[in-house]
Amino acid sequence: MLHDRVLVRADAGEGERRSSGGIVIPATAQVGKRLSWAGVVAVGQSVRAVEVGDRVLFDPEDRGEVEVRGVAYVLLRERDLHAVAAERLEGSADATGLYL
Predict the structure, then answer these.
(1) Does residue 33 have a pLDDT over 90?
(2) Residue 27: CATH number of its domain
(3) Euclidean distance between CA atoms 18 and 88, whole angstroms
(4) What pTM value is reported for the model?
(5) Which of 11, 54, 55, 94 has the fewest CB atoms lying closer than 10 Å?
């Protein structure tokens, strides 16, 4: 990986969903602009806030897709990430592990 790039593998949650009330929402239903979660697979040497294994929140409209050995990945810039969920703050009592 080069510079400020982050390689992620998107969660496979693009299909049918269930609301908190139990209503099934089909994959074809129109929804507003929705951000997606993904797991970080690799990071460039200039990336400061993200490590391999973290989960990141990004806009699926602003992404570059790449396929490596038959597996689809998404290539993002660090500045295009909206949030990072990490478990690095284990010692802190009030830490949620979510950086916005």
Answers:
(1) no
(2) 2.30.33
(3) 30
(4) 0.71
(5) 94
